[in-house]
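Hi R.,

Here's the chain you asked about this morning:
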Amino acid sequence: MDKLLQMSAKEITRLEAIQRIKDKRLTQKEAGRMLGISVRQVKRLYQAYRKQGAKGLVSQRRGKASNNRLDAGIVQQALDLIKEKYTDFGPTLAHEKLVEVHQIQMSRESVRRIMIEEGIWKPKRAKKPPVHQMRERRACFGELVQIDGSDHDWFEGRAPRCNLLVYIDDASGQLLELWFVPEETTFAYFAASRHYFERYGKPVAFYSDKHGIFRVNREQTSGLSDGITQFGRAMQELDIQIICANSPQAKGRVERANQTLQDRLVKELRLQGISDIDTANAFLPQFRADFNRRFAVQPRSNHDAHRPLLKTENLDLILTRQKTGPLSKNLTVQFNRVIYQIQSDRPGYALRNAQVTVCEKADGEITILYKNQPLPYTIFHKASQQAEVVDSKTLNRQIKLPQPPAANHPWRRYGRRVNGKPVQETSPNGSD
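And the predicted structure, written out as tokens:
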């Protein structure tokens, strides 16, 4: 009776079934179906019962430590490292660092349990997933590439806030390009796209939001008369389609990647001691390769839809800000409030009203093309600076606060003399 009292409910159920088999009231096959075990296991239980009685059905591991129990020293070492370096890390990322950096072999769930018990990490309440129309991944690598800019405090106050341009393949979830820029501009996307084209070639289509860089959102356009943006014009010349999503959820691949990057990349930059854009951009290829190794999937098709750049596709000219218009009778053209005077050996009448294209590079260099050939020019007139139109994302960066004068600045010296000698004083309010 004492032994029965120490048996679990599962073991008591098995005992009753074995006793019914002994009394020939139940077959071994029926007992197996009832207990949810194989007939072979039923035979083992029956043989143990015949030799030891009910004792043979009691687990011999009861009261003993598990073979998989972690060593207390290893647990304490992992806990010290988490408290020292990874306090704001999630269990998954903390587990990766413990295994790969510190060679501490323990399961992800063990790390999660330790962090919860110590109050380092609190599990989030599961949210009901929103209902969105599901879209299957594209089949081919390079068939559809989602692009977006992520404005975030990437350096956690060690450097000014900036943008990360993200290019991710729809078919594989592979990060194809990451590029830090001070702000999200057309020239920034030109630079990131150039890196991408030189590495992989031209994709079939880009999938973006309805930002003014990708789509003209009002009837009146500046610079181009056919209702297309500078980025759209460049992609059109490269035979790359631009598709604009109607909502952030529609381009969920890149939106989800932004969330992951704002967690993982921020922490990696901190661990690497990186505090500026140039050093961060140099580190990004290493991070991108590690990210793709962990999260990228195999596309349904082995076909690479990327196309090589043609010899006629000059990225130095295509990836520029352009305006096409006629020359005046005086062989001048205006661009960005600057008048350029064409210098030509041809007769003056030969180029009057000729259609030329003004190309502006990111560094401000101007090239004027006529029938794809550059024309020499001089700057005839440069207008005064006009007020810029900016959006809410870039407003703070446009405001340049005046710097306080140095301690030895003449403004801080007043004309008071003591014993006939000038004395340097502080400002009237008493502060330097």
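The chain has four domains: 2-57, 72-117, 145-295, 317-382.

Let me know if you need anything else.
M.
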